[in-house]
Amino acid sequence: MADQPLTLAEATEKAKELRTQLNHYSHEYYVEDKPTVEDYVYDRLYKELLDIETNYPDLITADSPTQRVGGKILQGFEKVTHDIQMFSLNDGFSKEDIFDFDERVQKLAGKQVGYCCELKIDGLAISLKYENGKFVQGATRGDGTLGENITENLKTVKSIPLELKKPISVEVRGECYMPKQSFVNLNKEREEAGQDVFANPRNAAAGSLRQLDTRMVAKRNLNTFLYTVADFGPMTAQTQFDALNELSEIGLRTNPEKKLCATIEDVWAYIEEYHEKRTDLPYEIDGIVIKVNDFTIQDELGFTVKAPRWAIAISFRQKKLKRL
Ligand SMILES: NC(=O)c1cnc(OC2CCCC2)nc1N
Fold first, then answer.
1. Is the ipTM here above 0.90?
2. Taking a C-beta distance cutoff of 8 angstroms, is the pair 301, 108 a contact?
3. pLDDT at 1 over 50
């Protein structure tokens, strides 16, 4: 016999249960890349929730997985002022530049310091604001002070949680990027449709986030890695390495290839390692970012107008950098 239609009370309870289950499975799949259920299990539960929301539209919540598909046509992007400037990075082009950086840092810090090394994801820098755990604003870097409000577009990026694992208010920053395979598939589609193709995944990600039709963005399979805590709220990390782990603990996606290096020689080994490995990665990187690990020392070193003194990027895309 066909299921009896749910009462409002039953539907409310069931929708809440389904949202929790679906958001958990989605976190495993999109944030941890470790799904524990087959797609058909997810799809069946999703359909059940969609049916309930269709019958009881008032039960639709902002963090419902059904809201990820987009459906808004924006008129444009409002401007957003970054209370905390989004800095860029000084570039290094050779082993000598990296060792000179280490010398400067040690001189300023008055001691040998440890470094947190990260892959330099080739995407678009974004800022995410959460209030009491809820995703409230997403923005582009812009010129570092003035960016664009792309909240509605970022809501369709499945690895950006609409709700954190803890009800905290923080601002975090990272990179939004298009995986290599998605880039290949997109360009194939565009070519078949007689459209211009994108030159590289970074341009494809930027072009996708500029879409005013959020349904288009939802189809572009964008992804993220977060790497900066701008407003810590109650977060307690005292080093960059711990901050990356803390970002992951509250439900944000971070890059697993990070490494804590005690000496600049270890940093150089990491750079050479990923210069080799980069073609095997499912996303593009344009270099490595080296950061003084200890936040107290970062604060001592401070910033120039554009960039921190406690970090340097070595780019793999340098004419001069024939080989490392
Ligand atoms: N593209 C990246 O993967 C990346 C970029 N920037 C930073 O750190 C900058 C941010 C502001 C000061 C240091 N880290 C990264 N991993």
1. yes
2. yes
3. no
